[in-house]
């Protein structure tokens, strides 16, 4: 069991039945579902952007053509999640 502070999470990526939680210091592999992790994460700080991604809103560096840039990683914004994502971003 590993304790992760919410502030350290950059994004969460789905990988088959696992989740890869990318943090400032590295990554943690978890056997959880997106539903389970979304119920735990603070709603104001995280948003689902794609069927395979959840991002920390305050870690987003830029958004260009439905892709989010966080560090060197480009994360897609899926059509299913696009409206909610941009609505949340525009409130900031």
Please name the defining characteristics of this protein:
92 residues; alpha+beta; OB fold (Dihydrolipoamide Acetyltransferase, E2P); three-stranded antiparallel sheet; 8 strands; globular
Would you summarize the structure shown here?
This protein has about 90 residues and is of the alpha+beta class. It is built from two helices and eight strands; from the N terminus they run βββαβββββα.
Find the CATH superfamily. LytTr DNA-binding domain
Radius of gyration, in Å, reads 12 Å
The class by helix and strand makeup works out as alpha+beta
CATH architecture: Beta Barrel
- The amount of helix comes to 10-25%
Query: What's the multimeric state?
Result: single chain
Q: For the largest sheet, list the strands in their spatial order.
A: 3-2-1-5-4
Give me the CATH fold name: OB fold (Dihydrolipoamide Acetyltransferase, E2P)
Please tell me the overall pLDDT: 95
> H/E element string?
EEEHEEEEEH
Strand content: 35-45%
End-to-end gap: 34 Å
Q: Could you say how many structural domains there are in total?
A: 1
- CATH class, please? Mainly Beta
Which residues form runs of ≥5 with pLDDT under 50?
none
Count of helical stretches: 2
Biggest β-sheet, characterized? 5 strands, antiparallel
Topology overview:
Layout lengths: L8 E7 L2 E6 L3 E4 L3 H7 L5 E5 L2 E4 L5 E3 L2 E4 L2 E4 L2 H12 L2
Antiparallel strand pairs: 1-2, 1-5, 2-3, 4-5, 6-7, 7-8
Structure description:
This protein is an alpha+beta fold. The chain has one domain (6-90): OB fold (Dihydrolipoamide Acetyltransferase, E2P) (Beta Barrel), CATH 2.40.50.1020. Helices cover 21% and strands 40% of the residues. It has 2 helices and 8 strands; from the N terminus they run βββαβββββα. The strands form 2 sheets. It has a 5-stranded antiparallel sheet. It has a 3-stranded antiparallel sheet with strand order 6-7-8, with no helix packed on it. A hairpin with a 2-residue loop joins strand 1 (9-15) and strand 2 (18-23).
């Amino acid at each position: 069991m590993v304790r992760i502070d919410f502030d350290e999470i950059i994004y969460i990526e789905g990988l088959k039945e696992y989740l890869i939680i990318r943090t400032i210091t590295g990554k943690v592999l978890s056997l959880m579902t997106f539903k389970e992790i979304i119920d735990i994460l603070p709603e104001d700080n995280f948003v689902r952007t794609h069927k395979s991604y959840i991002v920390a809103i305050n870690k987003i560096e830029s958004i260009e053509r439905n892709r989010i840039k966080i560090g060197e990683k480009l994360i897609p914004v899926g059509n299913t999640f696009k409206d909610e994502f941009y609505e949340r971003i525009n409130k900031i």
